[in-house]
Amino acid sequence: MNHDHFFFHDLSQFPIVTARHGSAPQGYSASWIREMELLVDNPRTFVMVVPDMQIEAAHEDRKAMIEWQTANMPRLKARCRAFIAVERDAGSLEKLRKRGEKMAHAFGMPFLAVATPGEAVQCARELLGQAGPGGFYVD
Q: Cα separation of 46 and 6, whole Å?
């Protein structure tokens, strides 16, 4: 997988993939979908980290991305071990965790929320079965 083909997803720590939607222009969903297609077509599993949950996508972009995720959930579940959101605000973090529990139940895959990027990386490593500082292996 050529990392140069990705703009909205940072693959520098692959199999930890960091979404970078913060500077995304309106209409970016087509490029986002192309990148997601490359990720799910790749044989290696990954964890998606979303560090900017407060960034709102344009309505049409959000709609297109949700439609793609819904239509491709079996493919996504086969490759993506979890989505991990980073939320520094304690009140928002708790709300996001509750929403993540509902999404995990609805989609059958983990949707987690943590307070820092470091926690997200550690959680991702554990989900991928990589040992990290103080971490453990996950089957």
A: 15
